[in-house]
Amino acid sequence: xxxxxxxxxxxxxxxxxxxxxxxxxxxxxxxxxxxxxxxxxxxxxxxxxxxxxxxxxxxxxxxxxxxxxxxxxxxxxxxxxxxxxxxxxxxxxxxxxxxxxxxxxxxxxxxxxxxxxxxxxxxxxxxxxxxxxxxxxxxxxxxxxxxxxxxxxxxxxxxxxxxxxxxxxxxxxxxxxxxxxxxxxxxxxxxxxxxxxxx
Length: 199
Known about the structure:
Oligomer: single chain
Largest sheet: 5 strands, parallel
Distance between the termini: 29 Å
Strand content: 15-25%
CATH class of the largest domain: Alpha Beta
């Protein structure tokens, strides 16, 4: 199995307990550079694979070829800054692995992302809608709605924004967790519900 492990925003003390457990349990930990190595080193000795800017595709493909085979027999972790699901080298690695072996099991251990951490640094509370973007694209490809207690209503609004696929995540990591792609959104949901719309 391949684990994508989020290391958070750069402080080793902000690595989650779950991340530490996985890093200690796997057969090998791979990190994409010196900063990730610095964070992981107090936990386990990682293997550093450098992904040079502008030339990382070759490195990604070569590593994917290795891991597509090894992950069938071993548990390996790729540990990166932030969260592996956001603008991450891990995404490109998984895409290349799936081209070789689509049966590789992947599990993601989320990390604390910079776009939530920044508010603790600037001391601003968020209680209104916000947009998180890199401004690289003119078109928003994904919308996340927190506290989506009326999923049907939320999905109708997201459709007007051009979203066509919808996911509901209710009570994540709690008793009664439900995470699924939804075609017929329920009218009501728990307070701890997130709806994701994808273009």
